[in-house]
Amino acid sequence: MRLLKRGTGSGEVTKIFYATDLHGSEVTWRKFVNAARFYEVDALVCGGDLMGKVVVPIVRRANGRREADFQGRLTTFDDDAEVASLTSRLATLGQYWYECDEDEYQHIKGDEAEIERLFTRLAKERLGRWVELAEERLAGTHIRCFLGGGNDDTDDVLAVLDQVSKDRVVACEGRLVELNDRHTMVSLGYSTPTPWKTPREASDPELAVMIGELMTKVEDPSRCIFNFHVPPLDSTLDTCLQLDESVWPPTPIIRAGQPVEFGAGSGAVRDAIDEHQPLIGLHGHIHESRGSARYGHSQAVNPGSEYGEGVLRGVIVSLRDDKVLGTQFTSG
Amino acid sequence: MAETRSASSPQGPGVFTRKSSGLVRVMSPRSAIIYNILTMGIIFPWTFVWAPTAFQGSNLVIGLIIAFVFELPLALSYAWLASALPRSGGDYVFQSRTFGGGFGFTVVFGLFVVWILQWVALSGWLMAVLGIAPLMFGLSATTGVAGFATVGAWASGSTGIIIISLANALLSMILLISGFKNYVRFQIVIFISVLLAFAIMLVLFFTSNPQTFTTHINSFAATTAGIKDFMGSATAAAAHAGVNVTPPATFFGTLMVAPIAWTSLQWATYSVEQGSEVKNAHSFKNQVVILAGSLIAVTVLLILLALGLQHGVGQKGIMVASSGYWLGVGEATLNGTLLMPNLLAIVLTSSTVLVVLIGLGYMLNSFQIVCNCFIGTTRILVAQALDGLLPSWFAQVSPRWKTPVNAHVAYFIASIPVIFAYNLVSDWSTRWALGVTFANGLTLTLSGLAAALLPIRNRAIYEASPGSRYNLARFPLVTLLGGLGFIFGMFMVISFLVVKGLGLAFNPDDPTSYLLVIGSVVFALVVYLLMRWHRSRGGVNVSHAFSEIPPE
Q: Touching check for B279 and chain A: CB below 8 Å?
């Protein structure tokens, strides 16, 4: 651990905007891309969990009408305008939709592998469009958009980032990237185990190995950003409901009328921040735990997420050399 | 037009959800209802010791029903807010998103955070006057040990109340700093104790009658305070102070019970449940059940208490007890100890066990109240600090305790002068006690307005929420309920400002109470402007904490 206070430095100020856990929400993605100009930052960093969680089939009936389940209620649509209103709401919520006829719906419904394929296809399509939008809107600027993955994202879908990105978008998952000529960033989207067995989970010892491998590439941790999806353990950035996993879906444990909360973060991440004292730790994963924590000279932040409401939670970080000049939580 | 029906229809399509969805089973509303009931302060005495002589001729039961009717639309509108913004956390965000950050900060900081300091003082006062003092007097009467009465008299005097209040607040701060889970462990004890105390009181009242009560209180007063014919002398003194023990009924007086009862009922919205991010009809219905369920339950409990008092103590006894509080009739107290409902119940029993159970329940609920004060306000302070509107120091988390220690310590320190003022400044613990109901009520009423405007000011958020399908004649139901809640809430807020019997307007020659109200708002506004200026000097635009980024 550093014992001496870091110098204030005399270099240029770099501002980055960090948001995370967009989970397929079109509105929050568009806001994220527009945040670059809105907040006048030099870089956008997204901390992962880009995939949505729900596909809403819109089924064509023989009578020409279409039906869909929206938030637990069956809705029938007479025309394209009504369907467009639905899909607009679904887009805000981060849900996918899939228009099909009855036979197709029944075919997919009972087949888990088909459902998984459908998710992958729709997620890839949406992520591809997102990357194209970012490339288009950031073209001609100096601003780059760094996209990592999260525990909810599959490797298959994340591969789109490398396939579609051209100039402004940088796929940074599992890599060391250069933010600029003064700062680097390492990104890791894996989390500790969750009740839902998400695609990219690892135990703390495994996370420690992954982090260790990334750190072998880092020359100066004091100028390196940790873009680690899972927050440090017991940091208050990782506080969430404790769940009874013996039922499905898991249910919150209640004691004395209050749901029990606990820290679901990673000890490996906490130890890494303690040991390496990076410039700053950027974290997500626990949507309801917006906050900031300090580990020696290093600050760790989690801006939280309200993707389902179309609200973009984020944090603007101002950097100069090996110092964080300030952080500002935003809600757009 | 799109038609909707329950998704339980076997012919309709469902949705496909990833197994790794993060989906959580929706919590049963039962636990949240229980927690909300206790938060709403079934022990708060003001309806029963303020209204009867401040508004002679008022009908407490009808007044409570009116308060319920006034509060219900406001409470229900919160169901829309909570299900539309399940992760946001409360009035500060609801109002900031609708009216802007400056408005949200000023209202919530000035009228809620600052005024809840009075609740910290109030909860200490409750602990002393409703908890310790009646317990001690009861023990003195049932055991014959005079020392208990001495302690009871001390506990209800200014010095005793101040010391107890400081200890109450300090203990709460320490418990919460040590970890919220420690408070939750303790809360089960509070639950059982409060409900048991309340149930015992109801049984005692409903198995008594006014004549029995008179006999008992005379004996009680003789034993504990050396007063003979207590009811005779107290009634005479009350009459001398202008109390008519059998006043004619007045509608206005009954109507004015509602703002007083709002002290309890307005907290129906305090703990809207944090919702699931995958919104569905269940999460919205749950919120409605929690809010309406707890409001109905508390109203029923308070009505039962009012009926119990009428049955077991009688109208004369109620008026006499009230005169000791509102009119300061010394003869209507026991060595300065006010005749609160639980003391009236203690008077009716010779069982030491029942006395202890009643006293314990009230003491523990008083402690829960101060904990709720810290919990609610420190969360707001942390949120406002993260938004850059308060110094970052408030949001710092202790590496050891994993709690925002600074916010807790700051709030405790801020409560110290308020505790002293509450108990030493003339009129504060009586006339101005409901100032906090006014200030907090205004905050909640403005959130009702935010709910009414949700479909207009935050259309995308509203349309993505499960509550958006509920309309009345093509009008969003949330707009109707929020609007109604705003109107009723403002009626009560304005009543506090202009009706003499509600305290703030009691002395037309003394503007102090108004200056306090205006001062708290101005203070909050100054803090906002100062922080905004200070942050801008460091290149930080605080409006980024609230301004919506255009998606196109």
A: yes
Averaged pLDDT, B225-237: 95
Residue A7 lies in a domain: no
Range of the domain at A132: 13-331
ipTM: 0.86
Encode pLDDT of B365-403 as tens digits.
999 999 989 988 998 999 899 999 999 999 888 878 878
Residue B361: closest CA among B341, B388, B386, B384: B341
- Asked if residue B339 is part of any domain, the answer here is yes
Would you say residue B352 lies in a domain?
yes
Q: What radius of gyration do chain A's Cα atoms show?
A: 21
> Model's pTM, two decimal places?
0.89
Q: Are B121 and B423 in contact (CB under 8 A)?
A: yes
Residue A141 lies in a domain: yes
Q: Flag if A86 and B187 touch (Cβ within 8 Å).
A: no
The answer to whether residue A3 is domain-embedded is no
CATH number of the domain within which B383 lies: 1.20.1740.10
Domain CATH for A272: 3.60.21.10
The H helix count followed by the E strand count for chain B is: 24, 4
For B71, B142, B176, B413, the CA distances from B401, given in Å and listed in that order, are: 38, 44, 10, 19
Q: How many distinct structural domains can be found in chain B?
A: 1
- A123-132: per-residue pLDDT in tens? 999 999 999 9
| Residue B414 within a domain | yes
Q: Which of A109, A307, A318 sits opposite B539 (nearest CB)?
A: A318
For B430-440, how does the pLDDT look when each residue is reduced to its tens digit (9 = 90+)? 888 899 999 99
A154 touches chain B (CB under 8 A): no
| Chain B contact for A291 (CB, 8 A cutoff) | yes
Number of domains in chain A: 1
